[in-house]
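Hey, can you fold this?
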Amino acid sequence: MQSLSFPTGRLDRIAMGLSGLCVVHCVATAALLGLVASAGALGNPLIHEVGLTLAMVIGAYALGRGLMEHGFLMPAGIGSLGLGVMAGALSLPEGGHEAVYTIIGVTIVALGHRLNFIAAHHDF
């Protein structure tokens, strides 16, 4: 049986895409809830928790794998800061400022993945 292996660059792109989807989800949910009260299914806490947890797992794996491959600490450090902000957002009550902290966290993580991608594909 052959193991499933993704190149680090692909994992970073997947993680950046998930970060982008998370931002779109947060912004769209806030806009739709402001316009139509029946759009509450998009704001379901389970979607937030599962999606954020999945993004954090893939993000941590991609950042760690990149660190092992290219040896640069900065991408993983910046990405870890963003993962921490995302984890903190999970602990906040729904309807408060969790969307703002989530967007800040995924933006920082996306920056970490971008730096990880650059470090993996450039000779220094």
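Oh, and this one too while you're at it.
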Amino acid sequence: MHIRKRCATFAFLALPLAAASIQGTKPEEVGLSQDRLKRIHEVVASHIDAHDISGAVTLVARKGRVAHLEAQGVLDLASNKPMPKDGLFWIASMSKPITGVAILMLMEEGKVRLNDPVSKFIPEFRGMKVAVMEDRPAGPAPANNPDAPPAYYTVPASREITIQDLLTHVSGLVSGGAASRVELAKVARKPGETLADYIPRLGATSLDFQPGSRWSYSPGAGFETLGRIVEIVSGQSFDQFLRQRIFDPLGMKDIFFHPPADRMPRIATTYHRANNALTPVDTQARLTNTTYFSGAGGLMTDAEDYVQFGQMLLNGGELNGKRLLSPRTVDLMASVFAPDTLPGRQRGRGFGLSVQVINDAIAAGYRVSSGSFGWDGAFGTHFWIDPKEKVVGIIMVQTDNPNRQLDRDFENAVMQSIVE
């Protein structure tokens, strides 16, 4: 039996969403076609049937109101528990734009500048080196040591890495280079450590390239370092800052680094996708870690909470009378800092301050408006904000080897539903 037949729930609401401050509405009231929005269901169902995902929650807001909220598939394959609309998902790197907003709030207060060197706040980052790979003879690795670490030497960095470098992934700090695995092993994080314990040790690692010379994603280190800077500048732990300055003002009640016990039944099981099958992934370490607040990928939330954050950005930094940023700063966040001509970027896809910016949708092959911005998570979550069409789109899934074609299919299903 297909999962699509076991569980699918629609919600086109004319009343306030539960536990959310954004009102629901009928699609036609915000220029969307209810019949065409149903194509989102078919898109998600096809990926469930292909064993790409176990289930999903999709949400579409336009002109400040939610016109589509749907849960499909199951929360957990073993129990066959239906996916609830308030299912909780590890959003992984969709945590990064939240960290970006925290830094920009401090920038507006004059406490940090984009061109500030990281060493201004964390002295251990002063005088960093860059790894340069040594040439090896062509052919396979020596048979007596096939797992030999890469050979490299170091040279001085041409300049210090800055806050802007970290926000835009051009710093070279643990950015996927061949030396990164070796460098991270030197400073491996220990159980029970905090950002204050761990982040200074990253200053002893070698950068993967000269700062600003290319774009290469820093999955953890870059934004975890930004989280530590938030702590140093604000005098609060990173989780406290986010709760008091972002989550509570926006009415985000179901977003956590470490969810309380009463939320556990709503957590979607994480799966690994391979060979046309889904197998469960052990997430116990994430659930039991209560000391390390990763602004790079540590947050868990549901679609209704995250749309509060997205709508705040679409509104120019304000939601329901609570202003986090000025409109000019949101414009700055969604501006292209790393152009699509920079090595490492793709055509039409620039990068702003913690978000990807679609500067040319045709060149990128994306079915969104040019000027749209957002980001993804490693477990398949995805969101984007389309200022031209006044849309916030969110899809929550939980697969650690996601089929990213689902993101494009979802975007297409949303955009074709816009009729005025």
